[in-house]
Amino acid sequence: MNESAPILILGAGINGTAVARELALNNIPSCIVDEHDIAFGATSKSSRLIHGGLRYLEYADFKLVRESLQERNRLAKNAPQFIRPLRLHIPVASRFDGFMNAFSRFVNLSRVPGFKPLTRWMESNPDRGLYVIRTGLKLYDTFAANDQFPAHEVHRVGSAEAPPVDPQQYKWVCSYYDGQMWAVERFVLAMLEDTRQILAKQNHPFHVYSHHRVELKEGEARVLDHHGNCVHHWRPPMIINATGAWGDATLKSLNIPSDQLFLGTKGSHFFTRNRHLKSAIGKDALYAEASDGRPVFVLPVGDSIMVGTTDLPIEGSPEKALATAKELDYLLELTKELFPHIELTPAEIDFFYCGVRPLPYVPANSPSEISRGHAIHHQQVSLAGQGDVTLLTLIGGKLTTCRALAEDVANTVGQELNIQITQNSRDRLYPGAEEYPYSPSSLQELQERWATDFGLEIEEIKMLWELFGTRVRKVLETCLAEGETLTERIPDTLFPKAVVKWILQHEWVPHLEGLVNRRLMMLYDSPLKRESLVALANVMVEAKLLPSEKVDGEVESLVQTLSQMYGKQVF
């Protein structure tokens, strides 16, 4: 076996990229292939929370909560450019409700013969009272133990510290802190950049093939483009299936027999700029629970408010998952129940999205009860006379714990290939976190100084900071060193054209849609102008990534995708 041959990683989401980074730290190269774009799936369609999983305490999943909180704290330290502490308020209607429900879930009473009818009756009233929630939050505070995330508090509805939820329905709010990551897609790109830098120092190439597929043929893995042409082939020492909700379909496409491993559920969110709702929650968030037991979040995301999520079974391929009118109406009604004095209509939805969670295939009473922990499935795959290789399929997991999953995978790879694993990323900064100014005043001072240094508006620096963190200085210096000017902007945006060109050169951009939605994060811009999209397409032409005669078609294809998959209008 060629020990320098890269491991094949299928999937360029949070798990696949985190695994590539962890392996690179141990001098193990990899090659990533994804049939879609980087961060295309659930990675870019989540609730964007970095959290310990408060509700998992009710299922006595202490291991997952402890691990999640440890990883949350690590991310706050190692990726401050992407994470911010977020105060969440839980509205509470009574003092005593929920004790029996909590006890039932804690001891898994539904699995005790004869008790299922009783647990179903209790689940018909899923409300949790003040004492149950405070008990959970005290335990959560004990596990959390971090100065960036203060301990919980309780406030009366109507007080200055409480959001203006319906006082006829709720008496208190319990407030606690977790984390929020708005630019998850940029976090994934930072992990890829770190992997590239690490492997470059070890003289290993690093290839990321988006919009490509893999076939196993004649003892090799072959990477095929959309025309079916082979662009890369080798015999990998191991294969890692990190395609998330596509996991079963990936195995089938490679003709690898396997039992069903995944039970995907769809989660939909919508985004609105309703000014009354924005005023009601300010910089905080609301965490409530629907009558079906599903958590509901009302969160500030940039200049928008995000409301989610649903948890429904899905049929068909995950890339076709859509937020239906029924789901959006459900989320609108939940928002109105919390804030009956705020009028919120479907017309005020700026856009929506729907992701598919890669949950494990296990029997459960409801999707919300399925563990959000992770597992690694092992199997041997024959490579046509070239011997067997181990294939690992990554099941479950979530944004918060992607690094911990990657560490587990690296240890498994080491055991399988007899390679000593000596490094981990627990204390490693993500690109853009170097020399980070942690106080708000020092951050503002640095951003103002850099705006002056590069002749940019402070708003431009702040916008670029959200994409790059402290890397923004190196990006801008590179642009100037290559003879670019920073004063020419993409129309109706704050993006210097030179920075867009840098992104096209360094961030594996496959199409205009990937540039707009997952590199520049323009899905969150309102209004989104066609003129901006045309200008970006023309920059791709200059970079020789798009033929000039295909500009109109590429723009129109993106406009249709935004409308059909996201409900986003282009003006």
UniProtKB/TrEMBL annotation:
EC main group: oxidoreductase
- Keywords in UniProt for this one? FAD, Flavoprotein, Oxidoreductase
Record's signal peptide: none
Keyword Acyltransferase carried by entry: no
Q: Tell me its EC number(s), please.
A: 1.1.5.3
Q: Name one GO molecular function term.
A: glycerol-3-phosphate dehydrogenase (quinone) activity
The GO annotation for biological process reads: glycerol-3-phosphate catabolic process
Give the highest taxon in the source lineage: Bacteria
User: Which positions fall inside the Alpha-glycerophosphate oxidase C-terminal domain?
Assistant: 430-541
* Alphabetized InterPro entries for the sequence: DAO_C, DAO_C_sf, FAD-dep_OxRdtase, FAD/NAD-bd_sf, G3P_DH_FAD-dep
Q: Does the keyword Oxidoreductase apply?
A: yes
UniProt domain FAD dependent oxidoreductase: residue ranges: 7-367
What this protein needs as a cofactor is: FAD
What protein family does this chain belong to?
Belongs to the FAD-dependent glycerol-3-phosphate dehydrogenase family.
Its protein name is Aerobic glycerol-3-phosphate dehydrogenase
| Protein species of origin | Polystyrenella longa
